[in-house]
Amino acid sequence: MSQKENKTTNQTSCGSGNCTCDKQDGFDQSMNKKTGRRQMLQKLTGGLLAGAGLVNSACSVTATDNKKENAQLKWEEFFKGNYRLMTADEKKETVNRLQRLYELNHGKRIDISTKSPVKDVLYGYAFNISKCRGYMDCVNACVKENNQDRDSQMQYIRIHEMKNGHFNFEESDDDFYHEVPAAGHFYLGTQCYHCENPPCVDVCPVGATWKEKDGIVVIDYDWCIGCRYCMAACPYDGRRFNWSTPEVPEEEVNKKQHYLGNRLRKKGVTEKCTFCIQRSREGKNPACVEACPTGARIFGNLLDPDSEIRWVLDNKKVFRLKEDLGTEPKFWYFMD
Amino acid sequence: MKQLKIFFSLVRDALDSATKGNTAYHIWMGLLTVLMLTGAYCYSKQLNEGLSVTGMNDRVSWGLYISNFTFLVGVAAAAVMLVLPTYVLKDIDFSKAVLIGEGLAVSALVMCLAFVTVDLGGPARAWHLIPGIGLFNWPDSMLAWDVIVLNGYLFINITIPLYILMKKYQGKLPHKRVYFPGVMISVFWAIGIHMVTAFLYAGLPAKPFWNNALLGPRFLASAFSAGPALIILALEIIKKYSDYTIEIKTIRKISLVVTVAAQINLIMLASELFKEFYAPTHHSSSAIYLFFGLDGKNALMPWIYTSIAMNVTATVILTIHALRKDLRWLNVACVLLFVGIWIEKGMGLIIPGFIPGPWGDIVEYMPTWIEVGVTLGVWAMGFFLFTILVKAAIPIETGRLKYEKLGSQ
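The joint structure predicted for all components is written out below.
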């Protein structure tokens, strides 16, 4: 029965709109079907819950228009699909809803991009161990750029202080609080490595995390159910969880956002470094690269033979961490 | 239509039977209700504030909930040890225990699903898991596999006993050709649920402590000792407080299953200890932390030694025939095994898997009171359900409760 309904919806949408598709492929078909079923669920549960008074403010006469709109938008947001399966129109709709919601609650505009991967781009990162001095400017820039929770002091980057003569993480310290660089020590940063074979992506039961065409491993924060299986699967401590509702002071919110990047998260979902997707897809360097005062961080397009990252890979003796796990990180270390 | 009418009558009669009992019974159920309400209060706090009210953090991202989930999958799977001989080998001894076993499996599975749900950061978004309207990452994710096998096993373990009870309720004999295929599937399925749950952990190269081929078989061995141990205790309580006769022969046979499984479990433990400590590598650091502590941190040491002491003592008691045949000693062994394996699956397996973290840092884990409250609530819910199921099934099984009687009353 639902298939029949879907067919009719498809036909009308194709007939009325300026639809560019002349033939549906399997992906579109399954996607449309999913949306159809979900809408049915939305209507069904909507009907059920309305009686229970859960959408009280949406129907109430006394509630203000803003409150009504707020509840309506939240309701629609709850039933949206996985970002990967959204059409361009659906992406636009959810972005509009999210921007409107922020405006309603904070009185300010945010700009959420849905920019797709740029063609012939595969991002890679290199870290110069000789240059890092442990100043932590990268960490601070990252927190500001990516709207991370200030309460729990969430950080994507960890800087490990290692004793000279050892390359041993177990003896290193990633929670130091003293003047840097400390004598007899060197520094090394870790973060999400955007693996070519990311174990975190395989384990996600709902497909809320995936690798984009430009190699960035992203999370759909609104699709994540918070089971934290990805955190257990990551060998590099690349993922963080919002144990409480993340708090970012209003004046510090970075309003230039990407759907898969630094937009504000909710409680109970995982997040991680996205190579600052909101910057990198615009052709800029990630915040950590820009903030590093010593030039220890190099970022670029691996497919561009003239890029700095390619120069490093071609001319320096590079290595990666835990290569035995076969994850193929796109994050290399080297020394001068 | 007629079947539906019989079904509703059965439910009515069963509820009637489940709500009647002596004072001790009402105190028991009242106590469970209080625990469930406390659990619900703790869970509401967790829903409001987030999982930050638990002892978990970015370094130890799974805790008491997932530990209990893992243990209870084993308890659910163990019901098969009673199903197999009853239906397949036609061992009449076990047939009375099998309904209890399946009731236990259903209760354990409901607890499993509850523990996974309370562990979710966004339980409201759990519908993303439903194939069709959500996006089910199958066959890649072992968690997706687990969702399938657990729900499938729950379905099997509800339908088979329901069919048998429906028939007996009408005073008829259940047809073997109807329930037998289901029983055969459930036998393989039970092994499946525990293997899949083990693969959930064993499939993570990021956690060397879990990434171990012995994990699945060891899960089975420990489950087949802890699960039937609980059944023995349950059978004795039922025998004491109801008119349901359970022959001593039945308990003897189940205790033999427990004994062999507990012995195999210890052999596997020895094998793991040898591998971790004869030539310790970087990958042994979780085991070193667990058994000896690392960097002066050793919060799990008391747990693991308690667990091993309990397991060894219980296995010794069970292995000595004279002691195993003495019901008092058997009960002691069963309690020791159940608690010992519960610790082993949680504080001895799930938690140390996260310690030390990927970059060697040691963050210890201790559950908070809220976490303990939710956990006790879920356990109380499981016992509550089990008690109702048993209380309803026994009069039907013994023939005291029949469909015809409804008309004459």
